[in-house]
Design brief:
CATH superfamily of the largest domain: ABC transporter type 1, transmembrane domain
Subcellular location: Cell membrane
Strand content: 5-15%
Structural class: alpha/beta
Keywords: ATP-binding, Membrane, Nucleotide-binding, Transmembrane, Transmembrane helix
Main location: membrane
Distance between the termini: 71 Å
Order of helices and strands: HHHHHHHHHHHEEEHEEHEHHHHEHEHEE
Number of helices: 19
Strand order of the largest sheet: 6-7-8-3-9-10
Protein name: ABC transporter ATP-binding protein
Bound molecules: adenosine-5'-triphosphate
Domain ABC transmembrane type-1: 22-307
Length: 559
């Protein structure tokens, strides 16, 4: 039997919760038993207290009343315990699933991230995981009791009148066929709804992240229009999904009513022919109602699973994507970079149809500072990304101390490089935490020392809590030059032998640029440096300037 996709996707995270789910399943079976007992006190009261039998009617009545209360209380308590266990287990499964998904996204290749919008990813991590959990909860809480109830009532019905039972059951295959078709429709509608919701989340994140641009260009109306288009698209597909789902309810009810009508007609004829008493026909009809309730519950479950399945596909796409830059099985620690770095006939393109680099050669000796110059878009930043193995080369190879990058473990490789990107990539954390990001083992003293070297001290003293001041999303509370200095401090706190600097003085005024250049001189002393810049003052600190397409421009004395 094929498991529903939502269960397969939740599987690994659900395994540890199996005992809890099994306990909850036990409770719901117990609940079915208690529910089946519930009419008996009434029967006891009717037959032994109200029918004029010689028993002690008041005592029987009191007992029946107490039994009714006890059974109802037991059902309530079982509901409460079952709900707590199932919902608790579902939340734990969800947390596990989100953690695994997040971990996977952190190691996905940047090509994958380039295609996937962050809002879309958040939508999958939150809403889609929630829908998958709905599927897990529905299976745990409704499949078992409905199945148990179905078997129990079927047994009673067949024992009582097999002929009428078969007539009543005749509509079930019709319902099953319709349920399968409906399930497909619901799933398709839900898939559309989830896709549009993901798009809306992507657009919203993009607009929120760029709220400054929106306001600065007076484009709030335009942004609202873009959002509105996506929002209406979500509304449209959600309404369609609701419509598909709602249409199912009368269909199921009508089919089941036809079953009851058939039994009424055939059973009525049996009564008229004297083959059955009226009371017996009423009993069969009552059983039939009890039978249809779990049938309806199971078809409802199929609809919930269809919704969960649409979300499970989107969760699985994240979990099972194999686009990761992975370590080779025999990968070893990266060498210490005592000889240098070498690009050998490197070819690369972000997209296959648009190569950025072709047959690129460059050697950087250990301890050397090399400046990369060249027109915008020629691939200078790309070279730094390839060196960090954020992307893998398409052709040729990159060697550090003669060892191919791809033969090294990524963790050790990244420890060899301190990267100061063009956009400083600051986190919503304090100044100190942002600096410490450059070295997992950094001490407070080390962070402060790096801050001093990168001239962070100059402005940190004026912040409300100094180095402990939160910087806001993306470091929004700092100026461009201050952000760059924090990024440089990250490089300074790192013990990496090679520093990669991408346009560290871009768009700074001469005074700030001068400060940043000073900070670079201090933080990169005695290290190998690969520097991308258009700034001639900064280029002057290099031992060698290389222009792209490759040509050695000048050899200068270092610093
Ligand atoms: N993530 C990406 N996906 C697709 N194309 C990209 C991506 N990043 C860069 N490119 C393209 O690759 C080319 C090289 O980009 P790169 O950033 O390396 O240029 P650059 O020389 O550093 O430019 P600049 O001096 O303007 O910073 C450009 O044409 C750019 O459009």
């Amino acid at each position: 039997m094929k498991l529903p996709l939502s269960l397969t996707v939740a599987g690994p995270a659900a395994r540890v919760q199996l005992p809890a789910l099994a306990a909850a399943a036990g409770l719901v079976v117990l609940r079915v038993g208690v529910v089946l007992l519930r009419p008996w006190p009434l029967a006891l009261a009717v037959d032994h207290a109200l029918s004029g039998t010689p028993d002690n009617p008041p005592a029987v009545l009191v007992f029946a009343a107490l039994a009714t209360v006890v059974l109802s209380a037991a059902i309530g308590l079982l509901d409460m315990a079952g709900l707590r266990i199932v919902e608790g287990a579902a939340e734990r499964i969800g947390a596990g699933l989100r953690a695994t998904m997040f971990q996977q996204t952190m190691t996905r290749s940047l090509r994958w991230h380039d295609r996937m919008r962050s809002g879309e990813l958040v939508s999958r991590l939150t809403t889609d995981v929630g829908r998958v959990l709905d599927g897990v909860v529905a299976v745990s809480t409704s499949f078992l009791p409905d199945a148990v109830m179905l078997v129990a009532v079927l047994g009673l019905l067949f024992a009582f009148d097999p002929g009428l039972a078969l007539i009543g059951l005749a509509v079930v295959p019709v319902l099953a066929v319709l349920a399968v078709r409906q399930r497909r429709l619901i799933r398709a509608a839900q898939q559309d709804a989830r896709t549009e919701s993901g798009r809306l989340a992507g657009t919203t994140t993009d607009l929120l992240r760029n709220v400054r641009a929106v306001q600065a260009f007076g484009r709030a109306d335009r942004a609202a229009a873009v959002f509105g288009t996506r929002n209406r698209a979500v509304l449209g597909v959600e309404l369609r999904a609701i419509d598909v789902d709602a249409r199912w309810t009368p269909v199921a009810d009508i089919v089941l009513a036809v079953g009851t009508a058939l039994v009424l007609v055939v059973g009525g004829r049996h009564v008229l022919a004297g083959l059955l008493t009226t009371g017996q026909l009423l009993v069969v009809l009552a059983y039939l109602r009890d039978l249809y309730s779990p049938v309806r519950g199971l078809t409802r479950l199929s609809a919930v699973l269809a919704k969960a399945g649409a979300s499970a596909t989107r969760v699985r796409d994240v979990l099972e994507c194999d686009e990761a830059v992975t370590d080779r099985p025999d990968a070893r620690p990266a060498p210490a970079i005592r000889q240098g770095v070498r690009f050998e006939r490197v070819g690369f393109g972000y997209e296959a149809a648009h190569p950025v680099l072709r047959d690129f050669d460059l050697t950087v000796a250990a301890g050397e500072t090399v400046c990369l110059l060249g027109p915008s878009g020629i691939g200078k930043s790309t070279l730094l990304h390839l060196l960090l193995r954020l992307y893998d080369v398409d052709a040729g190879r990159i060697l550090i101390d003669g060892v191919d990058l791809r033969d090294c473990t990524q963790r050790s490789l990244r420890e060899r490089f301190a990267f100061v990107p063009q956009d400083p990539w600051l986190l919503d954390a304090t100044v100190a935490e942002n600096i410490a990001f450059g070295n997992a083992e950094a001490t407070r003293a080390g962070v402060l020392l790096a801050g001093r070297a990168a001239l962070v001290d100059e402005f940190a003293g004026r912040l409300p809590d100094g180095y402990d001041t939160p910087l806001g999303e993306g470091g929004v509370r700092l100026s461009g030059g201050q952000r760059r200095r924090v990024a440089l401090a990250r490089a300074a706190v790192s013990t990496a032998p090679v520093v990669l600097l991408d346009e560290p003085t871009a768009s700074l005024d001469p005074a700030s640029a001068h400060t940043v250049i000073e900070a670079i001189r201090t933080t990169t002393a005695d290290r190998t440096v690969l520097l991308v810049t258009h700034d001639h003052d900064l280029a002057a600190i290099a031992d060698r300037v290389v222009t792209l397409p490759t040509r050695v421009l000048q050899v200068t004395g270092r610093r």
